[in-house]
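Input:
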Amino acid sequence: MKKTFMYIAVIFVVFSLYSCGYNTMQANEEAVKAAWGDVEASYQRRSDLIPNLVEVVKAYAKHEKETLQAVTEARAKVGSMQVSKDMIGDPKAMAQFQAAQGAMSSALSRLMVVVERYPDLKANQNFMDLQHQLEGTENRINVARVRFNKSVQTFNTSIRIFPNSMTNSMLLHLTPKEAFKAEAGAEKAPAVKF
Amino acid sequence: MQSFKKMSYSRFDVFSGFLLVFFCFCIITVAAASAAALDVPPLKGYVNDYANIISPSARTQIEAELKAFEQSDSTQVVILTIPSLQGEVLEEFSIKVGETWKIGQKGKDNGIIFLVSNQDRKIRIEVGRGLEGRLTDLTAGRIIDLVIKPRFKRGDFDGGFTAGIHALIDATRGEFKAEAKRLPARKNGVSPYFTIIFFAGVVLLFIGRMSKLLGGAAGAIGLPAVLYLFFGAPLILLIIFGLLGLAMGIFLPFLFSAGGGPGGGFWFGGGGWSSGGSGGDSDFGDSFGGGGGDFGGGGGSGDW
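Output:
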């Protein structure tokens, strides 16, 4: 009879763990990490494209040293910092990461504005190819960021709602994760000067 | 005095009632406005020509080619034309289409959406994750620039679509094979139920050994309960599994004590597999739908 109770107790514990959201929260956290992997990969992809882009532009637009320099510097800065998967919960690290990538984005968009002045460059096959790749990468970054934010929202909700919040405070001690915020200055387009 | 007071209360109630109705309307109109932005149209087949720019003959030809390509390579290519984006961003709309239609096979993510917005004169090729290696952003961009754009500029939509589809098929042929897809898909369909039944069998074996009555009861209630919790299985399935659980709870201990442990377990495993094998190719019929493919924003855009 003692054995019976033990079996029942084991089954009870297993099922109470299912219903209290223990597994859900773990799964959601993993989903956030996976989504972060995509974000990092697409940003990495962008930085990998920069040297080629700078080379091609340099060949046609020698006078745009400053703009090119800004892009190279922004890339170096982005390369020097890495936000690992465990740091997603750290608002400060996330803010730094976002600031660096934001600087990269604005340097790149300035470069693209400058390029408009060089019709030869725009007609160059290498440059057109790079532009396709860059556009594709920016789009991937967008998609990855939106999905990351969605997964963060799901995760943050799942650790806050009722039975889960108790499980979390007693067993898991997971903290809310940071979502991407709209980039400061993203709402205003770069100024075009002639 | 009394009546006046009463009246003022009721007036207040009427006022707040109006206010409530007003707010509700506000919320509904806002929700309606955001929903009306641009909905993803329903998936009808390989060619979804909502802008009416493809001729019937080109359409049947393209559909036949895409069907043959899916049957040989399992890669799904789908055309969508819309009259206008209605102010929406091309890339955001096309990823929304990908997320809604789920073109491509699950796990392989080998879907391609060829999207054209007629009035905006914009083209987008959205590439599933599994094909990003073959059909890179660059390749997709070049197909748009060199194959599709010149024909569209001449107003030759049929030629643009046909040549574009050929280029996409050529770029992705051989990346996936149709046969390899069928086995894992079937395995995934059966295995969660199978695992649950297996574990339920082990638990019921223990309980049933102690008492047949207890085992039967645990099986009849426990198995459907577990299925409901995990999969939200429909009622009929729950009843069937309830009976199965009852039978398992009563007969499993008997079976094992009579025929020796490992043999019985093996027999059970065999039963589970053979039932999965009878599915065959029936789901490869005329009805068309996305296979659950995932998109990550890869592909190219252009205009003409």
